[in-house]
Specification:
Elements (H helix, E strand, L loop, with lengths): L1 E7 L2 E8 L5 E5 L1 H5 L17 E3 L4 H4 L5 H11 L6 H8 L8 E5 L3
Antiparallel strand pairs: 1-2, 1-5, 2-3, 3-4
Length: 108
């Protein structure tokens, strides 16, 4: 199991987890959900206290990944399997992402 904090403008908005079977969960932080001034991170992930579950990386996060030759370079440089979308996401979206959302790996 691997987990990452989802930051929106450097504030923790929730947690993204890849379970041992390869599926994913996303859960908003309770304080984020209860604060009406805090936005959703994506229109496809409305604020709720329930965890979202998916067999695949959620499209919002998948669309943050590099593609083509950029993906090849990042994977080779960081020794990440090209099919390890979660590993790639945690590597590239921790500091270099378009928009307000960043993904920061939680070390165990």
């Amino acid at each position: 199991m691997r987990t990452a904090k989802i930051l929106f403008r450097d504030e923790e908005a929730g947690l993204l987890t890849q379970l041992d079977d390869g599926s994913f969960t996303f859960r908003y932080d309770d304080t984020w959900v209860s604060n009406n001034d805090k936005p959703v991170i994506s229109l496809t992930l409305p604020k709720t206290k329930k965890a979202y579950q998916s067999k695949y990386l959620f499209p919002f996060f998948f669309n943050m990944l590099p593609e083509g030759s950029n993906k090849q370079v990042v994977c080779k440089h960081h020794r990440i399997d090209q099919d390890d979308y979660f590993g790639l996401l945690m590597t590239t979206a921790k500091s270099d992402s378009i928009g307000a959302v960043r993904v920061v790996k939680i070390e165990e």
